[in-house]
């Protein structure tokens, strides 16, 4: 059973592709710097709020 769980996780990770996360402080221009560092292009960018 454990092997099937890990196999399922790997299959799902393969479908997702490359994902990267970057932390930016709430105030200031760190978000622009973080996006530039990871090379995110505007058409591929998504927005998230919390």
Can you offer a commentary on this structure?
This protein is mostly helical and 50 residues long. It has one domain (1-41). Helices cover 48% and strands 0% of the residues. It is built from two helices and no strands. The model has no long low-confidence stretch (mean pLDDT 70).
Helix coverage percent: 40-55%
Instruction: List low-confidence stretches.
Output: none
Radius of gyration: 16 Å
H-E string: HH
Q: Total number of β-strand segments?
A: 0
From the N-terminal CA to the C-terminal CA, the straight-line distance is 36 Å
Assign the structural class, choosing from mainly alpha, mainly beta, alpha/beta, alpha+beta, or little secondary structure: mainly alpha
Strand content: under 5%
Summed up, the helix count is 2
Major sheet, described briefly? Answer: none
